[in-house]
Amino acid sequence: MKLHYFPSPEATNTLSTDELRERFMINGLMQPGAVTAHYTDLDRMIVGAAVPTTSALPLPNAKETGTSYFLERREIGILNIGAPGTVRVGNTAYELANLDCLYIGLGEKNVTFETKAGGQAQFAFFSTPAHAKHPTALSRRADIRTDPIGDPAKANRRRINRLIHPDGIKSCQLVMGFTEFEPGSVWNTMPAHTHSRRTEIYLYFDMGDNVVFHFMGEPTKTRHLVIRDREVILSPAWSIHCGAGTGAYRFIWAMGGDNQVFSDMDAVPMTELK
User: Fold this and answer.
1) Are 247 and 210 in contact (CB under 8 A)?
2) Nearest partner of 108 among 85, 86, 81, 130, judged by Cα
3) Could you give all domains of the chain from N- to C-terminal order, each with its CATH number?
4) Which of 35, 63, 145, 188 sits most deeply, having the most CB atoms within 10 A of its CB?
5) What is the pTM of this model?
6) What is the CA radius of gyration of the chain?
């Protein structure tokens, strides 16, 4: 498991493009036949992926968590962004189709990932520390009913699919979902915002050959990163996080911090961005 420690806003402003990508991006997350994981100092969130092939992959123990097994003091949200697969929690098997989400609470010791014959499941996962147990729960893509928001004239017509949140799958602190765009819309989260009481991780996917120009940094000292399919952005509380793509895309968003109120954010007026 790789550790990620983040520079201050002042130090971030001095980084080169390559240094910025090294500190705030993760690529190569999806490795066939392996589980990869990255431990961050963003509210101690972990982001990772499991890509099983011919055999099941267990959720590994990691010395970085300081526990005897991964979920001893943690919870986890899993979204399948590949072909159908199976996640086993103890003796119970959960079948996940594309864009199905599984939440697993504190204290579950044995978790494994499997793919179906003829396809390739790709399980992206996000984990936060937890102090209370909530039951394992499955959200199916087919059951999600989300009204679009945004304005086609501003190229930001999109659906924000909230999966793990106070009015959906209950958790201790993890909030998670994914956003997808209508044809012709490419801007996400604009006008921009920060949320000083929690941090956020993005995983961009279903991009094909398109790229996203992801904007980050302090509102008056913005930077950008060019993102490709299945790459991850680590967003500290002081940084904006928004972007525009050259075509259609989706992204998973996961948050941890002081509260689970989705609208708890500090809006940045367009006139203040630099």
Assistant:
1) yes
2) 130
3) 2-136+148-272 (2.60.120.10)
4) 188
5) 0.94
6) 18
